[in-house]
Amino acid sequence: MPWTYRHSEKEFKSFLKDAKDRMGPVLESDKMAYTVVDGVLHVFRRRLTPPQVIAFGDVLPSSLRAMLVHGWNVDAVPLPFGSRSEMIREAQELRQTRNIMPLNIMPLNVIEATGYALWRHVNHRDLARVLAQIGPEAVAFWHVPGVAENELQQQII
Questions:
Q1: What is the DSSP-derived secondary structure letter of residue 152?
Q2: In 3D, which of 106, 85, 131 has the Cα closest to residue 39?
Q3: CA angle 81, 11, 29 (to 5 degrees)
Q4: pTM of the predicted protein model
Q5: Residue 135 region, left (φ>0) first, then alpha (ψ -120 to 50), else beta?
Q6: Residue 29 has what DSSP assignment?
Q7: Measuring CA to CA, which residue among 112, 114, 123 is closest to residue 156?
Q8: End-to-end CA distance of the chain
Q9: pLDDT in the model for residue 26
């Protein structure tokens, strides 16, 4: 049985802690962190074709993989990547319509913080390969500026 299935709760809690810590003190709970991460994953997914979503999901921990595909309209036409600020706003709006989290509470570093946690919980070689296959916009989406590579090393949980 794959480790990610057997220890999915432990793995997901560690991921959420990394994302929440990176977003700062404005997020008070794991539920808030989940809400933000869910929005970011859906913003990214909206720009991918179904084969790209499956390839990306295949390198994610099991809980993130489930979040990525939950509620997915596989017939939707992929959107173009926008600026970082446009995609942050989109994540905020997605979560606003699905939750009661006010827009002014969601931090502006949601994509960077989710990317930070993502790199710390996946195999770098596999993620880099998939992102490169999707394209430079995907690589840029998950890039974490100003963070040393050793800080992004995959964590052993």
A1: G
A2: 106
A3: 75
A4: 0.91
A5: left
A6: S
A7: 123
A8: 17
A9: 80
Q: Which two tokens stand for residue 129?
A: 């390969």
Which pLDDT tens digit goes with each residue over 45-76?
999 999 999 999 999 999 999 999 999 999 99
pLDDT given at position 98: 53
pLDDT in tens, 87-145: 999 998 876 555 555 555 678 899 999 999 999 999 999 999 999 999 999 999 999 99
Residues sharing a CB contact under 8 Å with residue 66, sequence separation 6 or more, in sequence order: none
Cβ atoms < 10 Å from Cβ of 123: 10
Contacting residues for 81 by C-beta, under 8 A, at least 6 apart: 47, 87, 137, 138, 140, 141
145 dihedral zone (left: phi>0; alpha: psi -120 to 50; beta)? beta
CB of 11 closer than 8 Å to CB of 157: yes
Give the position of tokens 């050793």: 150
Q: Is the pLDDT of residue 20 over 60?
A: yes
d(CA 135, CA 155): 26
pLDDT of residue 71: 94
Q: How far apart are CA 5 and CA 62, in angstroms?
A: 6
Q: Are 124 and 150 in contact (CB under 8 A)?
A: no
Q: Which residue has the tokens 């793995």?
A: 11
